[in-house]
Specification:
Length: 514
Amino acid sequence: NGRPQISASFSNEMLDESLSGERAPEQQGGSTVSITVVGASGDLAKKKIFPALFALFYEGCLPEHFAVFGYARSKMSDEELRTMISRTLTCRIDKRENCGDKMEHFLQRCFYQSGQYNSEEEFAELDRKLKEKEAGRVPNRLFYLSIPPNIFVDVVRSASRTASSSGGWTRFIVEKPFGRDSESSGELTRSLKKHLAEEQIFRIDHYLGKELVENLSVLRFSNLVFEPLWSRNYIRNVQLIFSEDFGTDGRGGYFDNYGIIRDIMQNHLLQILALFAMETPVSLDAEDIRNEKVKVLRSMRQLKLEDVVVGQYKGHVKGGKSYPGYADDPTVPKGSITPTFAAAALFIDNARWDGVPFLMKAGKALHTRRAEIRVQFRSVPGNLYRRNIGSSDLDQATNELVLRVQPDEAIYLKINNKVPGLGMRLDRSNLNLLYSERYPREIPDAYERLLLDAIAGERRLFIRSDELDAAWAIFTPVLRQLEDKRVAPELYPYGSRGPVGAHYLAANYNVRWG
Ligand code: NDP
Ligand code: BG6
């Protein structure tokens, strides 16, 4: 694929190649890329986007000529933007080497334009400033919409009319949420497409930029041992687990309008599921991969109400410290029944996966932070060693493959193994690939990978509109039923393992959560 390696320098040729199908550069002096972070004063911009841009610059992955612009309504000078950005930059990659200098160089390439999100005049002013920095080079422009979704269309309309590149490419990275259901998502897509071509829209799901999620295809398609087992013939169930050990932490206002199913399951976990379950793509080309993802999503059954359990965390006192409940968040409306936890059983009605439960579990304010894919294999038929297996439950002694997406990235396979000694006793051991031991260098943040891809025009890790439609089709009916019937979430204490209902749901399908 065309993505530059993280350690390689980003050459102008890469940038020009990435124009694929768009206009080739003619001007002298090569190309330049300007990255405008719309909503620059916000949480995501400060926490993730500016630090990721710096990390790319530090690693020599940004093109030689680039500029970073912040755009938001807040009034700020260039200097104030730089001060704001510098507070969150760290030299995490290599603490020894010229980090301070590089930071200074990076900050000198950051500029700010204040404006309303629907103001063509103010985007025209941004255009004027961008042109100054572009200095006659082929201007490529990337807009990162790090703003609430209700203003996406305003920005796209104004920016596409008055701040599009002439001669280079113009791309927009759009952050989730992409609507609340099939209807609103379709409406958003139609509105964006009034101003942009699909190739210009990069819908981000940052889980696709996580190292272990990207590795899923490598594991499946470049090792002989896994792919032949990857079907209903050998796999009993697949579990996709997301848990956080903190609550909505001031994002309750946003969260209450969406809930955990929309916040995590319909996008992050479903994307992992699609990569896990898709057929072998024709090639690594973005369209080939996305075609396969769409196929598998379209083979999925709509989620049923009886296959969902919802929960909400309540306040809890532990070790003398009190932890607030979701409903205690002042930004959450009184009496909210928005789920902060959900478990669901999903099915793919195709030849490969017929009858295999794909169980998802996602929750906030649980006892631990982790994201994992767990694959439980069937029992060994006529197992010769059934008497030697310590556990009385043979079901517990099946193989299990775990991909730990975070924290402490790892891939391990649980196997039955002879306990050394003169007797014949078996126990469960792990074949373990612990990333921190095997690959001690720090893993880049998902946003770094995704920004780099968007600059290079690599769409593989971004969501195509038909994928989005297929994803919403699975969840929209149940979301509507949960809301129409006002299904009360099961309350669980902050810091606990979540509602017990999740265990009953899994038990319906003979599954135990890993
Ligand atoms: P913020 O709420 O911090 O908003 C970003 C900026 O948008 C603000 O600084 C503000 O800038 C402007 N803004 C906020 N509310 C409004 C409004 N009602 N009308 C007009 N402008 C407004 O958002 P985040 O940075 O948290 O998130 C940005 C996007 O990324 C959202 O779509 C969010 O859902 C998504 N996201 C966020 C994550 C996170 O961890 N924060 C994680 C994943 C996705 P100003 O007032 O200066 O114009
Ligand atoms: C975001 C959700 O998409 O992902 C947040 O909106 C969640 O609620 C976050 O906390 C988790 O991302 P990560 O990368 O920290 O696991």
